[in-house]
Amino acid sequence: MKEVSECIVLPPDARSPRVVKQITGTKEKKKHKPITPEQFKAVINGGRGGDAPKLHNHGLWLDDDGIAHCSLCNATIELLKNLRRHTIESKKHKELYQKKMAGAVKLHQQSVKLVDKKAKGSELSDDLKDYRFKALISAAKHNVPTEAMKGLCQDFVDEYAGLTFGDGSDVVSLAAGPLLETLVLRIRQILSGEGCYDEFGVTFDGTPSFAEAEAIVFRVVTKDWEVVEILVRCGLYRKKLDKEELSSHIIDAITTRAALQLTNWMSTHQDRARVNKGALGEVKRKFPDATPAENYCTTHTVNNAGKKAMGDEGVATFAHLFRKSWQAVINTPGKARGRFAELFGKSPTTASGVRFFVRYEQVAELFEATPERIMEIVRWCIENKVSELSAKSMMLKFDPTTDACASLAMAMVEVAVVAEGVRPFAEACYTLEGDSCLILRAYSVFRRLEQFIGDGYSTPKLEEAVDRAIPLIIRVESSYTAKVAAANAAVESASGKVAEMVDELKRLNEMKKQVQGGTSSRGRVRQATERTRDNNQLDNVLEQIVEARLKEKSLMSNEKAAKDALAKVVKAYDDWKKQYPHRTKIELMDHGKNILKPVGQYYHDQFTSEDGDCYPMREMSEAAQMFNPIFLAKMSDADIVVTLHYLADKLTAFDYRHFDDKFIKKLKKEMPSVVEEAKGDHDLDRIPSSRQYQTRMQRRIKRKNLPADSNLDWKADAGEYAQRIWKWWKPRKDKYPCHGLAIRLIVLAQLSSCSVERVFSKLEKIREVCGDSLKGDMCEIRLLLQVNGDMDDMYNGLVLNRVDGE
Q1: Tens digits of per-residue pLDDT, 169-203?
Q2: Which residues pair with 219 in a beta bridge?
Q3: Mean pLDDT (whole number) for 664-692
Q4: Counting Cβ atoms within 10 Å, is residue 34 exposed (0-12), middle (13-18) or buried (19+)?
Q5: Burial 703-737 (b: 16+ CB within 10 A, else e)
Q6: Alpha-carbon gap, residue 762 to 787, rounded angstroms
Q7: Residue 536 contacts by C-beta under 8 Å, 6 or more apart in sequence?
Q8: Fewer Cβ neighbours under 10 Å: the N or C end of the chain?
Q9: Which has the closest alpha carbon to 449: 310, 314, 296, 602?
Q10: In this predicted model, what pLDDT tens digit does every residue of 2-19 receive, in sequence order?
C-alpha cells in the first residue's frame, strides 16, 4: 500500500480542535473562562429558567477545554454568551439543516460538482465527467479493477456513449477524493438526519490484511423502526494501532465523519483484545461525555471456549492432529475429495479452521464418516498417488496396521467427544453470529449451554467409540508386552550361557592347578615321561581356558546387547504408556469427560463469574426476556411483581444513562398493561418471515437435502424469533413509551462482530482482484459502496423524504 499512512494523522475532514489535541498532543492557550458541562446543558435545554427555546438539531458538543462546537455551521464557540446566542438562532440552524439536507442530489451529480472544484483547469465536459464517475462507481461496487474498467469502456462502451473514457489513472486521481467525500457526506446525512434516532452503537475491529485495517460500523434505529448498520470508516495503516491511535480513529469517525454526539454513543462492541480495552479506556478518559457500555464479542468468547477442547491449547490433541492431517490430504482439489464424495455422497468440508466452529464441522464430519474409513481413503490415495506426500504422512501417524493404530484409537475417542460434547458451543456460535436483534433471544442460548454443562456434558456415542478403540490399544500393548517378554527371555538365555561358561572356566582352572601341582617319586626315565605328559596336558588345559575366555567375552557381549535391547524395549513401552496413559475403558471414558471440563470452566469464567468480560452481556440478555410477548402472556399478577420487576432492575446491566431508577419505576408501571396486551395478542406466527430468514431456510433445506417445500419451525431460529419480537413492538412503541424506548436502546447492543467481519471479507476479495498496490482512498471507496451500497434508497427514505414531508 503506497498511500497508507504511517500511523494516525490528522484526517483531511477533521476540523475539531478536540481531535487535533488528541492526535497531535497540542493544547491551545485558554484566553477565556471555559464553558462548564452544567452551563452547556442548561443552554441547550432552554436556559436556566427554561424560557429560551430548545435547540432543534443543534449539532452542538462540548470538548474537554470547555469549547463548544457546532456541526451544522462548523462554528467554534468559546464564550458562554455566544453559546446562548446559538439558542436565539435555533430557527436559523433549523433552516440551515433543512437546506443542507434538501440540497443533496444523486451521488454521481454531487461527485461531478466536487470534481469541478478539485480538477482546476480541466477541460473535460460535464457529460464526460458524469460518464467517468458512473463507470468508476460501477467498478467499485462490482469489484472490477480500474484498468479492467478502462479497457471495457474503451472496447465496448465508448462507442455507445459517444464519449472517450481516457486514461484510468487520470480518472482515479481526479475522482477518488471527491467521490469519497460524497460518500462520507451521505453517511453523515443519514446518521445525523431526522430519519434516525439520536442514539447509536459502534462495532469496531481490526485485521492484518494487506495493511493493518481498522473498520468501524455504526448501528442505529430509524424512525420507521428498522435496525440499520452502516460502515463509516475503514482505515488502512502500515502498523498495528496502539490504544491512543485507535481511540483517535474511533473518535474521529464519530465526531467528524458521522457528526454525532458522544453523549448518544450507547454501546460499543469489540473483541477482548487488550488494545481494544485500552482504546476504550483512553476514549473515556479524554472524553467524559463518551460513556458507552462495553460489550465484548460473545461469539468469539464461545469460540475460544471450544478451543479449550480441541486446538493448539486443547486437550484433544489426537483429534486435532487427525483433523489437520486429513485437511492436508484434501487441501488440493482433485481425486481425494472426489473419493470422499463417492463414498459418502457429499464433498468434504475444507477450510483453514481459524474459527473453532469450522474445526467442529470438520471433526463432526470425520466422526460421521468414522476415522477407520477415513484411513481407507488415505490408503487409496497412496496407492493411486493422490496427495501422496500428505497421505503418507498421515498414514505414518495413524496407520491401523502398525503400532500407530493406538493414535488412531485415541483419535476415534476424541473425535467422538468433540463431535458430541462441543456441539452446543458450536451451535451457540452459529446462533449468535448475526446482526439481527439477537439480544432478545440470547439468554435462551446461554441457558442451554449452562444446562449442558450442569448435566455433565452428555456424550452418548463416547462409549461406542471407546469400545471400538480398545481392541486397537490392546493390540499395540500386547505387541509391546510380547516384545518385553521376548527381550527378557533373550537376556535370561544370554545370562545362562555366560553362567555356564563361568562354571566351565572354574573347572578348567581347577584342572590347571592339578596338572601344575602333580609330582612323581619314581625313576628318572619314568619321571621324564610323566613330566612330558603333564606338560602336554597343561598345554591342552591352557588352550581350553583361552578358548573359554574368548567364548565368555562373546557371551558377555551378547548378554549386554540383550540387556540393552531389553532396556530399549522397556523404555519404548514406558514412553508409549506415557503417550497413551488412558488404556482401559474406565480411563478412556474419564479422558473423554476431562476433554470437556476446560470448556465449561472457561465459559464459567467469562459468562457466569461476575469478573468475566461477558458477564454483563449475559445479564443484559436476561433482562431482554421481558420484551418477548409469548413470555409476557404467561405472566400472572404475582409473576409481574416477582419476575418482570426483577428483570426490569437488571436493565442497569446495560449501563445506559436512560435506565435510571426513575425510568425503571415508570417502566414497572407500564408492565400490567403490557402483559394484558400480550395475553390478548402474542401470535408471532402471523408476522411475515424476514427475507434473511427465508434465505437461511433455503440454504438449510439444500444442505440437509430436504424437500424444497419443507417448512421449518421459525422458533428454532433465534435470529428470526428475535426479529418477530422486534416487529411485534413496532405498532406498540408509542402506546408504551418506556418499553418502546427500552427495547430501542437494547437492540443497539450486539453479540457478535459479524458486521465488521463482513467488511474484512470484502477487503480480502478486493485484495485478490486488485492486488496489494491499491490506493487507500480507492480501497475505502470500494468498501463503502460494496458494504453500504450507494445508499440511494436509504438516503431518499431517511433524509430527502422527511425533509419534503416537513
Answers
A1: 566 777 777 888 888 888 888 888 888 899 999 99
A2: 201, 229
A3: 91
A4: middle
A5: eeeeeeeeeeebeebbbbbbbbbbebbeebeeebe
A6: 8
A7: none
A8: C
A9: 602
A10: 333 333 333 444 434 444
